[in-house]
Amino acid sequence: MHDRQALDAIYAHVQPLLGQGRVADYIPELAHVPREQFGMAIVKLDGEVLQVGAAEQRFSIQSISKLFALVLALQSEGEALWQRVGREPSGTPFNSLVQLEAEGGKPRNPFINAGALVVTDVLCSRFATPENALVGLMRRLSGNAALDYNLKVAQSERRHSDRNAAMAHFIASFGRLANPVDRVLDAYCSQCSIEMNCVELARAALLLAQHGSVPHSGERLLTPSLAKRISALMLTCGTYDAAGDFAFRVGLPAKSGVGGGIVALIPGRCGICVWSPGLDETGNSLAGTAALEMFTTLTERSIF
Ligand SMILES: NC(=O)CC[C@H](N)C(=O)O
């Protein structure tokens, strides 16, 4: 089936799922987002955009920011970054602390919260305002110079960040943070609050679909080898403890966020983003995962 037909079929199919799942109400500002929204966009390497539903509605990218923070950290540290953070799936929820104690404060991978806090610490050492560096990258990748983070959402999360604070202090207790915990948490909450829509995020994912260069500007930001490594981590760790099931059902590298977004890509072909705020018990968009599964099934295209 062609992509356009697939999007229309998906839109019809997900309707009964849209009231289901829970929004991420542990961040009070996100508790008010209506659950039944859905949007999806595909952006091809040549710039062609296909979209359905609320694909131009901005949402809180949350953990999708971990993907692009990793891009910046790898640009600055190269392979030395792996001394600070591992690259194995955790098999535990995104906000779990349990492995840190047994593993000497080195987080399993950059896509769980513990790993993302270490990546943000790296960015705090590298940039005066890491959140602005990340917003700058997202503007370049999306082609939209107006996008920004949402201070209200950032402050709302920061005021309720006991768990991430516990994690950051615990990592620091092993001598594994270079910056003060408060500074790392401020930057982390700001980066999570960046607002983008499906079209913008699907376009941003072209960086990885095109193996490290930006199609619309021709800029090379990553070596093909680093782009490969990031995409591989998306497949194995991008949806936390659901990564195995997600690879089984969808078969694409992807990164999710508790704002309900999931960004995915088909190497050499397109970036994809789906958004629907109702989350399943692993914190991944329920309708979004179903939509991506349907997409790869109907189009018969995945990385396998
Ligand atoms: N999975 C997510 O999107 C989590 C991000 C969220 N800001 C948190 O730290 O809890």
From TrEMBL:
Record-listed E.C. numbers: 3.5.1.2
GO MF terms held by the record: glutaminase activity
Subunit structure: Homotetramer.
Catalytic activity from the UniProt record: L-glutamine + H2O = L-glutamate + NH4(+)
SUPFAM superfamilies in alphabetical order: beta-lactamase/transpeptidase-like
Protein name: Glutaminase
Positions with a binding annotation for substrate: S63, N113, E157, N164, Y188, Y240, V258
EC class (word): hydrolase
Origin species: Paucibacter sediminis
Family statement: Belongs to the glutaminase family.
NCBIfam families in alphabetical order: Gln_ase, PRK00971.1-1, PRK00971.1-2
Domain of life: Bacteria
